[in-house]
């Protein structure tokens, strides 16, 4: 439907010109504004001594979609639900005729081609310069948020309500999560391409080159209980030229989420893990995660999207942990009657947080994977703390963990000597027990 109207109701001088978007000897497409509304003036024909324009109201969002090549000019016109003005203007600027129409009645001769996309590169003086950069940034962030999954790290201790400490956050969650993901990337990359790209040096070089583009993007944050939205950045993967590596890079983040951040590690997931990753790789990937999930002071939760519900990552069957990342055993040499005995000590989570324990080795393993270990106090331990004995001594020392405390118990001469440690500094407890036993020996004498 088309309707002719008189030209005196249409005064272009009332519109503010924003910018000529397309200019070829003369303006082809101009952006105008009036009363906070946006308009396109599009030159479609020239007859006799007049130009014919399509004049239509457009959404600002559509303008930025057009300027960033997300939407064509043709689709903006034919999808427009507003009244469209067909304006005839002579070369002196006087409007000769105006026709009202709708998008479905615009002649195809007046419409741009199907591929009428524009990648607009504004100058710094352009009206669009900062707006396009801001729009691209927001569009990029929003596109990532749509695909993000969320991880929540919450303290179980009521002492500080629902808040988490900075050191706890960085040392317990973020560093372990980052370490696990980076180790997974490397293991999965080499597993995937070691047969098709047999030069290991070259393969390692490729991995190091693409590693910065493989990281999860942090797109949302919530404080208190620390919540973070993580997304796979599929846009930046365009910088990877090899099609097979690009496909792997796009999907590896989701693969990590499905295998490593699994809610309960069912048999199917565990079988996939055992089949595809070596024991060494599994320990590097999963031990950092188990340190979080098996820590009685915190809970690790995950949800598929912003609006879904959280579920806790918790391995109910503890044998699964040992199956994925087997607990190591380590031989520790002790002295007894000048002969070398060897005691097998199971690796536990009893680790000095400040790495100050030097008299015995305990593997940096996960919390509660085992709750008991043993050590033997000898003359060397006493001498280290300036307690000299004129006879040989060998005292078993039991070390156990219970939630947030470490319990050390030594039995000598039928008497228990113990210490409960909340700081994680095992050396301090060793000193206390050694001192108690030494004082007992002196008093007995």
Can you give a write-up of this model?
This protein has 445 residues and is α+β, with helices and mostly antiparallel strands. The chain folds into three domains: 3-137, no CATH class; 147-324, no CATH class; 329-444, no CATH class. Helix content is 32%, strand content 29%. The protein is built from eleven helices and 18 strands. It has helices at 60-67, 73-78, 129-146, 166-193, 200-210, 243-259, 267-276, 279-293, 319-324, 379-384, 426-444; strands at residues 3-5, 16-24, 26-34, 37-47, 50-58, 84-90, 95-101, 149-155, 217-222, 226-231, 298-303, 311-312, 329-336, 339-346, 372-378, 394-402, 405-412, 415-421. The strands form four sheets. It has a seven-stranded antiparallel sheet with strand order 1-7-6-5-4-3-2. The chain has a five-stranded antiparallel sheet with strand order 9-10-8-11-12, covered by helices on one side. Strands 15-16-17-18 form a four-stranded antiparallel sheet. A hairpin with a 1-residue loop joins strand 2 (16-24) and strand 3 (26-34). Helix 4 crosses helix 6 (243-259) and helix 4 packs antiparallel against helix 8 (279-293).
């Amino acid at each position: 439907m088309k309707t002719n109207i008189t030209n005196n109701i249409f005064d272009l001088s009332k519109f503010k010109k924003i910018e000529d978007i397309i200019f070829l000897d003369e303006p082809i497409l101009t952006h105008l504004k009036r009363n906070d509304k946006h308009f396109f003036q599009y030159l479609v024909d020239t007859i006799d001594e007049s130009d014919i324009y399509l004049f239509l109201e457009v959404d600002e969002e559509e303008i930025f979609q057009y300027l960033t090549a997300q939407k064509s000019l043709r689709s903006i016109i034919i999808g427009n639900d507003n009244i469209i003005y067909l304006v005839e203007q002579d070369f002196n600027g006087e409007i000769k005729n105006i026709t009202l129409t709708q998008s479905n009645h615009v002649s195809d001769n007046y419409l741009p081609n199907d591929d009428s996309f524009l990648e607009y590169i504004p100058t710094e003086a352009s009206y669009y310069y900062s707006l396009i950069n801001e729009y691209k940034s927001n569009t990029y962030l929003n596109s990532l948020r749509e695909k993000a999954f969320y991880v929540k790290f919450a303290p179980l201790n009521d002492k500080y309500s629902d808040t988490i400490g900075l050191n706890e956050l960085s040392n317990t969650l973020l560093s372990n999560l980052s370490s696990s993901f980076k180790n997974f990337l490397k293991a999965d990359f080499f597993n995937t391409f070691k047969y098709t790209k047999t030069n290991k040096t070259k393969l390692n070089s490729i991995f190091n080159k693409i590693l910065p583009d493989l990281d999860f993007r942090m797109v949302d944050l919530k404080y208190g209980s620390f919540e973070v939205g993580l997304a796979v950045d599929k846009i930046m993967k365009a910088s990877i030229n090899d099609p097979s590596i690009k496909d792997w890079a796009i999907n590896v983040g989701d693969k990590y989420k499905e295998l490593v951040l699994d809610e309960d590690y069912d048999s199917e997931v565990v079988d996939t893990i055992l089949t595809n990753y070596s024991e060494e790789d599994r320990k590097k990937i999963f031990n950092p995660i188990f340190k979080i999930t098996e820590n009685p002071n915190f809970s690790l939760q995950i949800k598929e999207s912003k609006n879904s519900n959280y579920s806790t990552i918790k391995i109910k069957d503890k044998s699964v942990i040992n199956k994925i990342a087997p607990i190591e055993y380590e031989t520790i040499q002790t002295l007894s009657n000048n002969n070398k005995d060897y005691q097998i000590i199971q690796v536990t989570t009893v680790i000095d947080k400040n790495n100050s324990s030097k008299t015995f080795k305990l593997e940096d393993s996960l919390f509660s994977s085992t709750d008991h270990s043993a050590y033997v106090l000898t003359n060397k331990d006493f001498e280290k703390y300036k307690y000299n004995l004129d006879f040989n001594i060998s005292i078993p020392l039991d070390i156990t963990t219970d939630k947030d405390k470490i319990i050390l118990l030594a039995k000598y001469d039928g008497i228990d000597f113990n210490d409960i440690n909340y700081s994680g500094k095992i050396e301090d407890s060793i000193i206390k027990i050694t001192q108690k036993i030494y004082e007992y020996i002196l008093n007995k004498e």
